């Protein structure tokens, strides 16, 4: 990804994130989160993580943020009324953030920088030898393409079988829990 | 091509924005959105590490598997959290954290 695209997507992400805090209207905040996640998906795509980028758009901006908007409109929230801002949380929050960012800058200025290893057709074709010949992954790698989805599927179903099963159970438990939580108790 | 430190800086800044939102805002739904921003910031640094540490010439897909699991668990967490917020609103008719002081001693 060209460097200017990296900075454009980063600016979109950070401005979207800052707008979440600044806007008083919850709907505007939710739409700013959508802008932030779109920038993030652009960054993922630039890192050659195409599957994660698509999942970020489909699951986060598609499903999760629509759920947020749905709840905001269901509860019919008005703009936050202007309360007198209490000084202590404001100072504590800003102090925490300033401390975190200064630590981050300090660590990053001392740690050695690294540029991305090339993913050009020669490097990909060299990697094809680690996969069964004639299969889809090896064919795509030999042709100089990165079969991102196939590689993730390969890893998911060879190395992460048990976590995948546990994830299924977590989703089932969440579904049942949401139904129980949102059921009106009869008195 | 941006370097690893650029990605880590941007990811850390997004995390800081999320942290500021969690501490500063009083609307519990906005706080919850800022939690999602912090999770996404962690995802960005995981994907950056996966891309910058190649194994056999390919990105290290273990990092992206972790991102996959984080995104899935976050989706389940959002569903449960929003159900709790709706139940809270039904019981108290407010989602302003200053008004929710039942646990205060």
List the quaternary state of the chains. Answer: heterodimer
Q: What's the total helix number of chain B?
A: 3
Give me the Rg of chain B, rounded: 18 Å
Give a short account of the largest sheet of chain A: none
Total beta strands of chain A: 0
- Tell me the structural class of chain B: mainly alpha
How much is the average pLDDT of chain A? 88
- Low-pLDDT windows of residues of chain A: none
Structure description:
The complex is a heterodimer of chains A (187) and B (105). Chain A is mainly α and 187 residues long. Chain A has a domain of 78 residues: Four Helix Bundle (Hemerythrin (Met), subunit A), CATH 1.20.120. Chain A is built from eight helices and no strands. In chain A, helix 1 runs antiparallel to helix 2 and helix 2 runs antiparallel to helix 3. Chain B has three helices and two strands; from the N terminus they run ααββα. Chain B has a single domain, classed as Helix Hairpins, CATH 1.10.287.3510. The longest helix of chain B is centred in the C-terminal third of the chain and has 32 residues. The radius of gyration of chain B is 18 Å and the shape is elongated. Chain B has 105 residues and is mainly α. In chain B, 74% of the residues lie in helices and 4% in strands. Chain B has a two-stranded antiparallel ribbon. Chains A and B meet through helix 1, helix 2, helix 3, helix 4 and helix 5 of A and helix 1, helix 2, strand 2 and helix 3 of B.
Briefly, what is this?
The complex is a heterodimer of chains A (187) and B (105). Chain A is mainly α.
Question: What are the salient characteristics of this protein?
Answer:
heterodimer; A: 187 residues; mainly alpha; Four Helix Bundle (Hemerythrin (Met), subunit A); B: 105 residues; Helix Hairpins; two-stranded antiparallel ribbon; 2 strands; elongated
């Amino acid at each position: 990804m060209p460097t200017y695209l990296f900075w454009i997507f980063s600016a979109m992400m950070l401005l979207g994130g800052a707008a979440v805090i600044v806007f008083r209207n919850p709907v505007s905040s939710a739409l700013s989160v959508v802008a932030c996640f779109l920038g993030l998906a652009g960054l993922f795509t630039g890192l050659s993580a195409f599957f994660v980028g698509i999942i970020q758009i489909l699951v986060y901006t598609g499903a999760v943020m629509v759920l947020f908007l749905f709840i905001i409109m269901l509860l019919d929230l008005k703009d936050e009324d202007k309360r007198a801002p209490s000084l202590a949380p404001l100072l504590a929050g800003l102090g925490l953030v300033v401390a975190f960012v200064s630590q981050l800058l300090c660590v990053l200025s001392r740690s050695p920088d690294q540029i991305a290893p090339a993913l050009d057709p020669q490097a990909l074709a060299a990697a094809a030898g680690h996969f069964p010949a004639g299969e889809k992954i090896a064919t795509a790698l030999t042709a100089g393409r990165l079969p991102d989805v196939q590689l993730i599927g390969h890893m998911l179903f060879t190395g992460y079988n048990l976590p995948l099963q546990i994830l299924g159970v977590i989703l089932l438990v969440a579904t049942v829990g949401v139904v129980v939580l949102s059921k009106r108790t009869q008195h | 091509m941006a370097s690893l430190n650029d990605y880590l800086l941007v990811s850390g800044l997004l995390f800081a924005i999320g942290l500021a939102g969690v501490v500063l805002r009083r609307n519990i739904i906005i706080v919850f959105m800022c939690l999602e921003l912090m999770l996404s910031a962690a995802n960005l640094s995981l994907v950056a590490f996966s891309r910058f540490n190649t194994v056999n010439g390919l990105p290290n897909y273990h990092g992206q598997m972790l991102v996959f699991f984080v995104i899935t668990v976050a989706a389940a967490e959002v569903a449960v959290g929003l159900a709790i917020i709706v139940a809270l609103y039904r019981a108290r008719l407010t989602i302003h954290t200053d008004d929710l002081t039942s646990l205060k001693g």
